[in-house]
UniProtKB/TrEMBL annotation:
Claim: Transmembrane helix is one of the keywords in the record: yes
Keyword Transmembrane: yes
Annotated region (Disordered), positions in chain: 189-208, 278-304
Protein name as it appears in the record: Ig-like domain-containing protein
A Pfam family this chain is assigned to: ig
All residue ranges annotated as the Ig-like domain in the record: 26-105, 108-187
Top-level taxon in the UniProt lineage: Eukaryota
Amino acid sequence: MKVIVLFVFVLGALSAAGEDFFAKVGGKVTLNCGVSSYRHTLQWHHGTDVVFNVDQRGFTRKGLVELARRSVVRQNNLEISSVRETDTGEFKCLADGTRHEHSLSLFSVLVSVKPSAVLKLNDEATLQCEVKGQPQGCEVKWQSPNTDSPTDSSTVQLKPVTSSHNGAWQCIVTCGSNKLSQSLTITVKEPPTTTKSPPKLNGKSEKPCGTNCGNDDASPRLLGLAWWVWVAIGVGCLVAILLMVCVIVLCVRVKRRKKRFLKMKGQQRPRHKKYCQCDHPTAAAKPKQGRRREKPSALPLHPA
């Protein structure tokens, strides 16, 4: 009997008191191991699955479960990112053989506002914070952007809507020492201010201001264009006409010069060739030799 009592006492000493943790689906949670240091080994288990195993040299080995890929060990604590519903359950931290058992509970927070998140002054709206899978003992409160103390209800009625309701509202879920929040932004639009124009002295009502209020000129418009547009068009046309006149005058002058050049070229006479004149007397001309007379051929002798 004494041996059984002693064995139960040793198990109670080796198993320290655990802690209950709460997290939001899709959020991040840190599970405290319960020890500040260890000498030999540190292990984290989720149920019967090994998540991490750290030796005395600080070398970390991850487990084969999917949870290990979304987790990391920091200062002996287990940080889980992108929390899923499958992460709920019992967690064990073994530090040098001492076991610390913890539990993780998950819930989802849904915030909404009716009729919409864009409101006008003096409207009515309802803010709702719904917690699915809420564990027992948790409190749900709303905190407005312009007050420090949250309301003690998961539903808030805005009657009427004021400018102080504009901004980010926080739905705060408190479970023991764990506190989670979900934000909701509300935009309050003020009605546009309208200014009345003073009446004219002659009693005539002014015409409503259209899109051309700031561009009305004192001078009348021609074909919908302002006077400076017509001035620019006239100056452009004048410049074009001057350029055309200059081109025509230049062409006429070129033609005249061409005709004058051809005329001067036609009036020039060809120059006679100059030969060298010798001062010595010319040699006497040789007498012409006449053709020699040919002897008459002998007449043929005819028989008598």
